Amino acid sequence: MSISIRGVHKRFGQFQALNNINLEVPTGKLVALLGPSGSGKTTLLRIISGLETADEGTILFQDQDVTERSVRDREVGFVFQHYALFRHMTVFENVAFGLRVRRTPQAQVVERVRELLRLVRLEGLEQRYPAELSGGQRQRVALARALAVRPRMLLLDEPFGALDAKVRQELRTWLRRLHEEMHVTTVFVTHDQEEAFEVADQVVVLRGGQIEQVGTPTEVFDHPATPFVMDFLGNVNVFQGRLENGEMHLGPFRVDYPQYTHTESRQATGYVRPHELELAREPVSTRSLSVRVIQLNPAGSVLKVRVHSDDLGIELTVDVVREQAAQLQLRVGDAVFVSPRNVRVFLPSDFTI
Amino acid sequence: MFRRWIRPSPLPGFLPALGWTSTVLFLLLAVPLLACIVEAASLSGAEFLAAAWSARARAAYLLTFGAALAAAVADVLLGTLLAWVLVRYEFPGRRWIDTLIDLPFAMPTAVAGLVYSALYVKTGWIGRWLTPLGFQGAYSRTAIVLVLTFLGLPFVVRTVQPVLESLEGDIEEAASSLGASRGQTFWRILLPSMWPGIMTGFALAFARGLGEYGSVVFVSGNMPFKTEIAAVLVVARLEEFKYAEATAVAVVLLASSLSTLWLINWLEARSRRHAS
Description:
Chain A is α+β, with helices and mostly antiparallel strands.
């Protein structure tokens, strides 16, 4: 079932939580709402579910206007960050709850609950109480409970936020696989860009109650629409520079920027990801920047190198793959050279081409 | 030789703490209770039975337990509602009412008894309206239940209130997202979650009702067989200088109270099993 969000506004007192949100979620897709806290992602999810009402705008499921419907009639499965399990009920009764309030015959309840517990791999724990389960198990019970009533869509609010790193990783993979089996339209909220990229078909980046960018993970990562998206999706090195004659000058670097052909120079900002900087013992070209190693941090698969440029007075982070790091034999204080493989240039926002 | 029974704990001072606790308990609780039993034991079997199980005494036990039970049930209904209102709604004067709830804890119970009997007698402010309707709010069994309800109310409010406050809002949201109506959410989710608190409040109010003397003596009229509770009977026997008979009644009251409380605690523990 597709979801259309049209012109949604929401205000909490003086705080503008959502400002003119327009978004289409196609049937059967898994979409991530990604943004920092206060960006409005949870509010948007709650408005889709009916737990919150929009001040303005409409919500359509397929072609049906559900704006005025309460959560009870929207038939959505909602999964809460802190599980919200019913503590006085067994796992079985938790999953069965939605069926029980619909007065489903007992035989069907048993069958459906069995089926779901198999799906979330919790067979044999039917008679346990939530207090006797681990965090990951509780969240799977919450998922099974939401799915039991065959919802038209699944909405998850930071579903793995309260879990530790390893369990979170497992559940992400599992959620992706589950989605591939079930093909129910799914929207989930996260502040973790890695989680969004790993699980979602489509990522919606929110900031200050507005949508910054919508796209596939690859689109959003490779072609961030704004400096905010660039910055939010992981570490980035920022260069202040000048733009003139279709070229960007960042210290010794030159980057082509054909969109800007004016001869008068103007301020612009260049962004380079740590893995897009090349680090070498010798200058690769006259455009290499001379820097000094100030910190080495072996972070798993890459070596994170902090360097300082005396010329520009800035610090940069460079990711060096392990093999190259072994060749370079870097030590703190070494003089080395960096050159960018890829630079993204953003003009100050008042500028329009 | 004690070492074998003590589970190792990183906290020091287990033995002094245990020693201190048991000494206090012994002096404050066990010695008076023992004295009561020892005094009653001076009676022969037949004498004990005659004193503790006379028709008058049985009527007194029945009234004591019945009134305490009725009051505790009333407290559960009223107290739960009060706690609900205090937790769920914001309204002017809420903090005042919240403070007022504890008043029965602090007020001398004799004062409560006097006020109640003054209000509910035929000429009292409330009694003048209710008596013609056949509601005897003073010098009757109803009066006992009424005053015991007043005294037990804060127990229920104060045990249910924190439970309600600790219920996460998302539990109710989860229930309604699964299609439950407000009523279904209340009966299937909220009430069972509040149950352990309600049980504790019930037990405390009931125990208070069993032991109450000061207020009942003013409101009940103390008519043997009709409005005489067990504690009043004990005092009546004392006034006749029949100490052994008095303690015989006390021992029966003690034993039955203890076993009732035990039963309630057991039920309460059972309902609390999955609360955390």
